[in-house]
Amino acid sequence: MEIKVVSGWFDAELHNVKQGFNLSLFKALNPPWMPAKVVRFDGCSPGDVVRLKLGLWPIQMDWESQITEEKTGFDAWYFVDEGVLLPFFLQKWTHVHRVESQHGRCRVIDHIELEFRSGFWAWLFMPLMRQQFAYRKPIYAKRLWGAPSAS
């Protein structure tokens, strides 16, 4: 299955947007209906790890992704995180974070390929996943416009 969310264009330089992909932005992108505690956040370079504790007591799930690829070009930058330790309902997770730049403006594209362990889990969780990523669209422009924020 796939999720693809494209933000609107916002005024920003690519290098500033790249610097803005930090722990502060990561926390801001998490919607309030999906509690997540950041256990580890190394960054967006190959080999970096992101580890989360999802949910509320008594139901908590571990999530770990590793950054497997990153590339900067003249008019785009992207990095890929792949699931290493996923919640029980997911079997596979690959998330490409891509920033495109044109004439001093940028947009962010989240492209996620995921596999659920069964059709039931897909039916139950796919709408929440779509909502979670749609939630990010206005946050990108608000947080990444202009100078990067502190980590």
Description:
This protein is α+β, with helices and mostly antiparallel strands and 151 residues long. The chain has one domain (2-30, 68-144): START domain (Alpha-D-Glucose-1,6-Bisphosphate, Chain A, domain 4, 2-Layer Sandwich), CATH 3.30.530.20. It is built from four helices and eight strands; from the N terminus they run E-E-H-H-E-E-E-E-E-E-H-H. Strands 1, 2, 3, 4, 5, 6, 7 and 8 form an eight-stranded antiparallel β-sheet that branches. A hairpin with a 2-residue loop joins strand 7 and strand 8.
Concise account of the structure shown:
The protein is built from four helices and eight strands. It has helices spanning 14-20, 23-28, 119-134, 136-144, and strands at 2-6, 10-11, 36-41, 49-56, 59-72, 76-85, 90-102, 105-116.
Protein topology:
Elements: E1 2-6, E2 10-11, H1 14-20, H2 23-28, E3 36-41, E4 49-56, E5 59-72, E6 76-85, E7 90-102, E8 105-116, H3 119-134, H4 136-144
Antiparallel strand pairs: 1-8, 2-8, 3-4, 4-5, 5-6, 6-7, 7-8
Tell me the CATH superfamily.
START domain
- Work out the count of structural domains: 1
| Percent in helix | 25-40%
H and E order = EEHHEEEEEEHH
CATH class descriptor? Alpha Beta
Keywords, separated by commas or semicolons:
151 residues, alpha+beta, Alpha-D-Glucose-1,6-Bisphosphate, Chain A, domain 4, eight-stranded antiparallel sheet, globular, disordered C terminus
